[in-house]
Structures are given as C-alpha cells and as structure tokens.
Amino acid sequence: MHLRYVFKFPFIAAVMCAAASVSLGACGGTDPVEDDVVAGAGEAQELTAESAEALTCPASVPLMDFRKSFIVTKERDQAILSQDGFKLQSVLQQIIDSEGSTQDPEELYKRWWDTQNTAANGAFPDAIHCDDNGMVDASNGRLNGFPYACPRPEGALAQADSHPFDPADDDFMEPIALVNRFDLVPVDGAHCGEYRIIYAKKSVGFPDRNFIIFEAQLPNPHPECDVAACLPVAQFWADLSTLDDNTRKEKLKEFYIDGIPGFAPVIKASHFMEGTGQIRTNQFMGFPWLLREFKLDKDNNGPNSSVRLFVKPVTVKDNPFGGLFSTSYTPDNPNDNRDVLFQSSFLGALDGLVPLGDEENDISLRTLPTPDVYNSGDSKVDSSNDYKAQIQGNTAFMTSIETALDPILQNRSLWPNAVTAEDAAARATTQSCAGCHQLSESGPLGGFHVWLGHDSSRTPSSFVHVNEQGEISAQLEWKFLPHRWQVLESFIEEKSCEAACPSTAASAAFSPLSAAVSATSADAPLESDEPVPTLGGSTTH
N or C, which terminus of the chain has less Cβ within 10 Å? Predict the structure, then answer.
C-alpha cells in the first residue's frame, strides 16, 4: 500500500504501521490488549468502506503565505524574532540544558569560534583549534585531508572583549529568520525535516559580517509509521498562514522551544549532532569569504566529570574539494588518489545533473550527492570552488564526462552536446554553498537550464539569501520558496485525501505472524550507500 493511502483516517494509519511492529500500539504509544485488537479490526473494516467514498475529497490546505508558512524574517515579523526564546543566549542555554550540562552559554559560543584560531593564539588552551592536525603552510591547516583556512579573523569572536549577547556590542548576534525546510523530509520518513534559525552579526561593515544558521533535524516520533507520522508538522506550518500575528508568534515559540504535541522541541542538542542536523556559518569577517559547517558533540570533561558540549568543524556537505576536478591535485599523502576515485564517482552522478523533460530547469532544487570522503572543510567564494574553472585543462576527464553524458542526453530527448563537460561542472558548482550564494551567476548551464542568480537591482543583491535586515534574495523569492510551497501543499493533499486502506491489508495488519515478519523486515538494514531522496529539497539551498 502506498503511504499516500494512510493519512485521511488516523486509525487506519495506526493499523497499517502496526504491521511494521510486533507491538500493535507502536504508532499510538500504547500497549494493545486482545479486545482492543478485535474491536479495532472491526473499526478498520468500517472506516475502509467509508474512506472508499473519499477518493475525491478536497484537501484542507489553506492558502499559504511564503512569509508566514515558509520563512519568517525580521523584516516582516520583528515581534516574533525578538522573543526571549529565540535570543542566541536562550537557544544555547536550552541546548546545554537538554544534555544536563552546567556550562555557560557564552563560553560554549566562544569555544566554538576558537576553532578558527591556531593553538598558539587561541583563547582556550583545551579547545579545538584549526591547526590541531599540524600546520601545512602559513595559512592552511587540514580538514578531511584538504586545505582548511587557518587562522580566520572570526577567531576574534572567542576573545574576552567580544560580547555576542549584548545588543550594544558590534559582535551581537541577532535572530533574523526562522526557516521551514519540510521539503527535506526523506521519502522514507527517517526524520521530519529541518527547521532553522538564522543569526546575523550586528556590525555590517564589509568585511565584518558573519551569519550562523542552526539547522535542527526534527526526529520522527514514530518511524515505524514512515513519512505518515510527519503530517502534523506539515499541517502546523501550513496553518500558520491562517493565524493572526499574536497567535502565530506563540505557535512558533511552541514549535521551536517547547515542542508541539507528539514532537520534541526543535532546539535540542541531539538535533545538531552526528547523523542529525548541523550548524552552518557564512563567514566574511576577512578574505576569502567562505562557508563552513559544524556539529555538536559532547564529552565528560566538565566539572566533576560532568557533560560538556562542544562545537566541532566538519566537512561542508555536497561540496567536493575543487582540486579533485583538476589535473593538479597535490595531496600530502602520496597514496591519496581521491582525484581518480572522485572523477570516476562524478560520472555516476551525471544522471542527477540532467533531470527529465520539463524538470530540466529544476537543477537548482537538487543536490549533487557527494560521498563525504571528497568533501572539503571550506566552501570558498573564489576560483578554488568554481568547478568549471577547476576542470579546465583536464581533457581526459572532460572527454569521459561527455562520453557518459551522451546516452543520458539521448534518454532525455536532448540534442547531442546539449550539456557539455563544462556545463556539468558548472551545474555541480550551483549545488555547493559557494556556488549557490555567489559563484553561480545568472546564465545558461546547458540544456534548458538557466540558473537564477542574484538580482543586482534589489537587496540583498549578492552574498546572502537573508541579510541582516531580514530581506530575502531573488532566488528565495522566485525559485526556492515556491518550490517548497508546492512540496508542502502536495504532501498534505496527497496524504490527506487520496484513496483508502484496502480491507485485506487492514486484516493482515492484525495477524501476529505478519506483524512479526514485518517487524523483522523493518529492522533489517538496507544494503545501500545511496542517499535517501527527500520530498523535494536540496540540502545546499
């Protein structure tokens, strides 16, 4: 049974997900008894008959406002963003409290930025520093075996004279946006999307700008129900467009800080750790401008062996090191042949860079799946991250790309050389952080695709998708938000209205044998390294 058939009637959803668990109460969180099972089976049969008449039911999806249901900014909703719960100090305190730590939130923040300093110039001797693996030259450490700019001017934020929670200080970090990324829900319902808070540094004189984005991954409370369990979250965001400002303000605080019924609050340490969400930065307090990624982690090195949280640098996902495209890759280790392996891997990713038919212009909504072994720790806004520039002169690789593209283009009914090797590299650049933010200018990328770059006639005209005032970019307004709107609307419509639960499936759900078999199957790991696709979102954008 397709998951779309489960949503209209909650009981049927519970019946069907019971087949994936030995405990028939798994979806509802209660322990079943035999009488309940018998009664429930009768109710399931009755609802099956009723739901068969609901095939044409109109979905209850309100008219959604981009600026209420998908992005909430300082520009339009200062009262929402200025609530105590969204202040950086409060968010860090809640993160700390969620792990039972006694840390000071300002110290946690400053230790984070000490990762941008060398050990010799760091503010905390026992913090992570960007040269912990040894300096390679005057300006680079190493992360994942690739150059990592070290030190960075942002390391000054770790010093005693920096006050991130004081509105009068130039280093004050102010919340400027809340972002709904329900489109990042995996099709298997492994989690229920990402929900973000963007902060901006007060001082906006270039180059003294800095942004941080807390990107929490919200757990699915009932993964045995697959993506069906995420429907309340989808409905929550859709319904925000129907509420008055004061009610919307309270609802958003509940979602992020307290948690809506059945779901954990967004702000929780475990939502930013390995295997979950992340914290990303957009750093241009110095040159080159770059974007980075971090994860929360913890140890027991606090007072009396108590829990201590820390923020550690990690690779920037879907951002392969630019030198892997070139002929001049020079690793420290002579046995490092990742350029050869990457170029072979890239050929297998070309299919995703040339979508089908009328989807050809949706390249900006897709992600180039890059195994982490190839990802860099920096996404720099310079030629090192411009894959089209990096591939120049690598004629053997370019020939291999175009040979691999030939059957793909034919299958897509595109003309020969509609997408060239240079186009493929340029398309890959759009999927990196630096490409999406700046390097990928407006223009054709082969085939029917034209990248929507920044609009110089509006603010923000470059660099960021949400600026310090909460104004949004042209890409967000005209490309990304409309797409996310379509994903959310389609999800609610399809999962709320289409079809019914077949009676045979409902009956089978109550068979102890079938339940046991299904539970065994559900517990079996999938033997695949392929990333699970999302409902429609690119993690980069």
Answer: N
